[in-house]
Design brief:
The chain is an alpha/beta fold. It has two domains: about 230 residues, Spore Coat Polysaccharide Biosynthesis Protein SpsA, Chain A (Alpha-Beta Complex), CATH 3.90.550; about 90 residues, no CATH class. The chain is built from twelve helices and nine strands. Strands 1, 2, 3, 4, 5, 6, 7, 8 and 9 form a nine-stranded mixed sheet that branches. The longest helix has 23 residues. Keywords: Glycosyltransferase, Transferase.
């Protein structure tokens, strides 16, 4: 593994999105002393994504090394796993196939990771760009990998950043592999909108003793095509995203609430249930965001559904208890291999 940065683009049927994404990468202002490469992982696409990406990159005339990998097993987590195995450099930047990196992104990300050896993951600031003018209610949504991830640059307060535009220290991934870490979430899979794999990886890296950082200077555009600008799309995103909670909540309770045993796990899980239940009741009574219920009924409905989906997943107590024990076991193995 050499010093440098590998840019990873995992894609499923991204032929229409990849040319713009690669164009923004091709014009990166990278210091000549910094080694970098671009890897596109075709995750079982059916639309010639690999051929389109190769042709687009050639047309841009960028001297950086470029490769296309193929992962037949559908799931963003599997695509990322292959990319991490193949990446040549010690820092890995995950750029979604609809992310447009600012010209200084790669160089700044490299410098920040070099300057902060305790950081296992570094996240940036995504700004939504819509193919067509979105309805007013879309500007109030929070689950589209955009916006600030902390009140200021520095350590992320809740040990997670979204996967779009994030940079990972490859040595940490190798440490997780030695400890036997296997992600429980497959993340996006084909047309499914399941999510949470990026957060699970952040939590595992935090368990390994590394910090999760955010820097607001790392800017990128997150392109929203027309088919995503709808309430039905966002409702599906909320529903399938909530299905990751039986895995993510055990991590959160261990890392953010310092739960180390089943008694505290159960108490804090009850608090989580009460929080979502009270919020759902407040929404039903119209007590959250005064005036929104009448002025933005679609937003109000989506907020209701979001809390309902989260409450519904909490019925999986047995799974969460099992996953919490696996989190504790992973932490023990990481501690053992580090000593």
């Amino acid at each position: 593994m050499s010093t440098g940065i590998s840019i990873i683009i995992c894609t499923y049927n991204g032929a229409t999105r990849l040319p713009d994404t690669l164009r923004h990468i091709a014009v990166q202002q990278v210091c000549p002393k910094v080694c970098w490469e671009v890897l596109v992982v075709d995750n079982a696409s059916t639309d010639q994504s690999a051929a389109v990406a190769t042709a687009a990159w050639r047309s841009y005339g960028c001297p950086a090394s470029f490769r296309v990998l193929y992962q037949p097993q559908k799931g963003l987590a599997y695509a990322r796993e292959l990319a991490l195995e193949e990446a040549a450099y010690d820092f890995v930047l995950f750029c979604d196939d609809d992310n447009w990196l600012s010209p200084s992104y790669v160089n700044l990300a490299y410098d920040l990771m070099q300057e902060t050896p305790t950081a296992g993951v570094l996240g940036g600031y995504g700004e939504l760009v819509f193919e067509k003018d979105p309805p007013v209610w879309m500007h109030n949504l929070t689950a589209l990998a955009s916006g600030p991830q902390a009140s200021a640059s520095g350590k992320a307060p809740y040990n997670a950043v979204y996967g779009a535009g994030c940079v990972i220290r490859k040595a940490v991934i190798q440490k997780l592999a030695v400890a036997g870490f296997k992600p429980l979430l497959s993340d996006r899979k084909g047309k499914q909108l399941s999510a949470g794999g990026d957060y699970e990886l952040c939590y595992a890296i935090a368990l390994a003793g590394y910090e999760i950082w955010y820097d607001e200077r790392l800017r990128f555009k997150h392109f929203m095509p027309q088919h995503r600008i709808s309430a039905s799309y966002y409702q599906q995103l909320l529903k399938e995203g909530a299905e990751s909670l039986p895995v993510l909540i055990p991590y959160r309770l261990r890392l953010n609430q310092n739960c180390r045993g089943m008694v505290y796990f159960n108490l804090n899980l009850l608090r989580v249930f009460v929080f979502y239940f009270r919020r759902l009741v407040w929404l039903l009574l119209g007590k959250v965001a005064p005036g929104k219920r009448n002025k933005e009924p679609i937003l109000h409905k989506l907020m209701l559904l979001s809390n309902f989906y989260k409450l519904y997943t909490l019925r999986n107590y047995t799974s969460m208890k099992y996953n919490f024990k696996k989190v504790l076991e992973l932490e023990r193995r990481l501690t053992r291999y580090s000593s």
